[in-house]
C-alpha cells in the first residue's frame, strides 16, 4: 500500500528518504531490489529479516505486501529504534521489530516464516541451521555475503541443509555521481546473494 512519502506500489525507495545513523550499514536501493526479487514474495508472506539494520527491506516489504507480516530482527537497541522510526515515516504497520541476538532470539518467535532474508551475521552457519528448522515447506531463504569467507560459509551451509534450486549472484552496480565539475560512475559495494528453497 503506497505511503505519502513513497506513493508508488513498486519497490525502490530512494536511499535518502530513510532516516539513517552514522556507521549503520544500509542496503542500497539497487541491491534491495535484487534481494526482494529473490524472495519471490506473496501478498501474505511472513518474512523474517535477520540483521535488519536501517530497516529498508522491512519497509519495502511492508508496503508491497500489506497482508503479510515482517519480523525485523536487530540486536542493537538504538538501531531497532531506527527501524521503528523508518516504519513510522512510511506508515508501515505490519512490521514487528525484535531486539535480540540471532539465533538465540529465534526460539521466541511464534510466526513461522515463509521467507527469510539474512543480511550477514557473525554466526551465519548457526543462524542458517536454526532458521531452516523454522522455515515452512516451499519457503524461500536468501543470505548475503560481503566477502569470500562468508560466501564459503553460506555455500557450505546451503549444501549441508540440502537447500534446493540454489541461485547465486554477485551485484556489480555503479551510480552516476557528481564530483566537483565532473560526473562519474561510482561503484556500489558488491555483495554475493545466495537464495534457495525448502522443498519439505
Automatic annotation (TrEMBL):
Entry keyword set: Cobalamin biosynthesis, Methyltransferase, S-adenosyl-L-methionine, Transferase, tRNA processing
InterPro entries: Cbl_synth_MTase_CbiT, Cobalamin_biosynth_MTase, SAM-dependent_MTases_sf, tRNA_(Gua-N-7)_MeTrfase_Trmb
E.C. numbers: 2.1.1.33
Top-level division of the source organism's lineage: Bacteria
Principal EC category: transferase
GO biological process, one term: cobalamin biosynthetic process
Pathway(s) of this molecule: Cofactor biosynthesis; adenosylcobalamin biosynthesis
Organism whose genome encodes this protein: Trichodesmium erythraeum (strain IMS101)
One Pfam family this sequence matches: Methyltransf_4
The reaction(s) this protein catalyses: guanosine(46) in tRNA + S-adenosyl-L-methionine = N(7)-methylguanosine(46) in tRNA + S-adenosyl-L-homocysteine
Purpose of the protein: Catalyzes the formation of N(7)-methylguanine at position 46 (m7G46) in tRNA.
GO molecular function: protein methyltransferase activity
Name this polypeptide is given: tRNA (guanine(46)-N(7))-methyltransferase
Amino acid at each position: 500500500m503506497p505511503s505519502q512519502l513513497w506513493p508508488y506500489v513498486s519497490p525502490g525507495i530512494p536511499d535518502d528518504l530513510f532516516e539513517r545513523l552514522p556507521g549503520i550499514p544500509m542496503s542500497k536501493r539497487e541491491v534491495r531490489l535484487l534481494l526482494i526479487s529473490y524472495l519471490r514474495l506473496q501478498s501474505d508472506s511472513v518474512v523474517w529479516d535477520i540483521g535488519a539494520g536501517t530497516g529498508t527491506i522491512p519497509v519495502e516489504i511492508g508496503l508491497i505486501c500489506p497482508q503479510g507480516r515482517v519480523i525485523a530482527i536487530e540486536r542493537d537497541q538504538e538501531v531497532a529504534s531506527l527501524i521503528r522510526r523508518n516504519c513510522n515515516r512510511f506508515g508501515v504497520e505490519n512490521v514487528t521489530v525484535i531486539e535480540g541476538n540471532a539465533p538465540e532470539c529465534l526460539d521466541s518467535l511464534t510466526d513461522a516464516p515463509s521467507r527469510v532474508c539474512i543480511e550477514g551475521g557473525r554466526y551465519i552457519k548457526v543462524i542458517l541451521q536454526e532458521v531452516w528448522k523454522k522455515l515452512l515447506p516451499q519457503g524461500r531463504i536468501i543470505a548475503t555475503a560481503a566477502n569470500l569467507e562468508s560466501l564459503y560459509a553460506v555455500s557450505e551451509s546451503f549444501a549441508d541443509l540440502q537447500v534446493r534450486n540454489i541461485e547465486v549472484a554477485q551485484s556489480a552496480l555503479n551510480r552516476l555521481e557528481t564530483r566537483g565539475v565532473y560526473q562519474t560512475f561510482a561503484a556500489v559495494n558488491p555483495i554475493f546473494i545466495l537464495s534457495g528453497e525448502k522443498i519439505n
